[in-house]
Design a protein that fits this description.
This protein is mainly α. Helices cover about 75% and strands about 0% of the residues. A two-stranded antiparallel ribbon has the order 1-2. The longest helix is centred in the N-terminal third of the chain and has 25 residues.
């Protein structure tokens, strides 16, 4: 379903696996080079600065074209501004499909620019057209739109927007149709987030979704974040007042205080136990959120002092851990690995094929016959 050349993307994953195996000393550098030669990567993927420049240039070109046609059709465009931008969003998406069908690009900036311009135009037009309609319908359409773009482009930013819209569907549905939503909503969001995290984790282990690895990483981070925020006392307290008109403390305050403090260490424990950087990173980030939550209601020291002491502590811990894991210990290391064991069986077969050199046979190096002898003596040929 991707608009990109998946065979070339498979090649780049295998090349990264070969580099990781070479860095780990599993294969020789010559073997890694032979694997790369057998799996060329020809898609145009510039560095980040060129990518940003091409993306901005593409966005500017689309905006100029949109502005020109807007001026030429000003009266009609003003009367139906939503339809105008909806049409231009569809045209930008069509340009994206046509461009990718005729050019070998991957994350070049041109595809990024066309992707984001088109989805912003279409989403903005939908928001304006459905301003007075049900927010559930609007967020459902936006979620479906983000899902389609994610499937076609594997853009992690769009995937994140789709997850946020999906959460909003749950929130507005609960508020509109579920009795006692003020008591159940945090638990609904937490349950949805936990289920989605398990689903995305399972998808990430599936070979079929190998090209959506970054999207699934972002979605797993987002699900862990929403699971925590749905149980965070500060968020539940303020969201209850803003969305549900609740006054005073939320129901079961002791439970939300416990979740606010306990979930980040649980994430860190899961990340360390499973050697998974996603819950580990989110747990470390949410420790700061837990500290902010506590301080919002119980100030222990001035914020400047807390930030300085926290920064010094984190720098010290980071330095110690980095030095300690310079040599891998218990499966942990500071060495960067580019891939997630993509195609381990394919790579093993490649390594065997590249390292098993063809041994010359005796028949290839020595052939009987061809000598000559005449009369009573032998010549120089025998």
């Amino acid at each position: 379903m991707l608009i990109y050349n998946t065979a070339e993307l498979d090649n780049t994953l295998i090349r990264q696996e070969a580099d990781d195996a070479k860095d780990a000393g599993v294969i020789a550098p010559e073997t890694a080079e032979r694997i790369k030669a057998a799996h060329p990567y020809t898609l145009y993927s510039p560095n980040i600065f060129v990518r940003i420049g091409l993306g901005l240039a593409t966005v500017l070109c689309v905006l100029l074209a949109t502005g020109l046609f807007f001026l030429l059709m000003m009266d009609g465009a003003i009367r139906s501004i939503e339809a105008f931008f909806l049409v231009w969003g569809v045209l930008a998406y069509g340009a994206l499909e046509l461009w990718m069908s005729g050019h070998r690009h991957y994350r070049s900036g041109v595809d990024d620019g066309l992707t984001w311009v088109s989805i912003v135009y279409i989403a903005g037009a939908l928001v304006a057209l459905m301003e007075n309609d049900s927010p559930i319908v609007l967020f459902t359409l936006l979620t479906a739109l983000a899902a389609w773009y994610t499937v076609r482009t594997s853009d992690p930013g769009i995937a994140l927007c789709g997850w946020v819209c999906g959460i909003m569907i749950v929130v507005y549905t609960a508020i509109s149709y579920i009795p006692g939503a003020r008591y159940l909503l945090p638990f609904l969001v937490m349950g949805l987030s936990a289920g989605a995290y398990m689903l995305f984790s399972r998808m990430q282990r599936n070979f079929r979704f190998r090209h959506y690895d970054l999207c699934l990483d972002v979605l797993r981070l987002a699900t862990l974040a929403t699971l925590y925020l749905a149980g965070n006392y500060y968020v539940v307290h303020n969201a209850g007042m803003e969305l549900l008109g609740m006054e005073g403390e939320p129901p079961l305050p002791w439970l939300f205080w416990t979740l606010s403090v306990a979930i980040p260490p649980v994430y860190i424990w899961i990340g360390l136990r499973r050697k998974d950087r996603i819950p580990l990173a989110m747990g470390l980030i949410l420790i700061a959120v837990a500290v902010f939550t506590i301080r919002a209601y119980h100030a222990v020291m001035p914020i400047e002092t807390a930030m300085v002491l926290g920064g010094v502590f984190l720098v010290g811990v980071s330095y110690f851990v980095h030095r300690y894991l310079k040599t891998p210990k218990h499966g942990f290391t500071t060495e960067a690995m580019h891939t997630r064991s993509f195609g381990a069986q394919q790579l093993e077969g490649l390594i065997i094929a590249e390292t098993m050199q063809h041994a010359p046979q005796a028949g290839e190096s020595f052939q009987f016959g061809g000598g000559s002898g005449g009369g009573g003596g032998a010549s120089s040929e025998f």
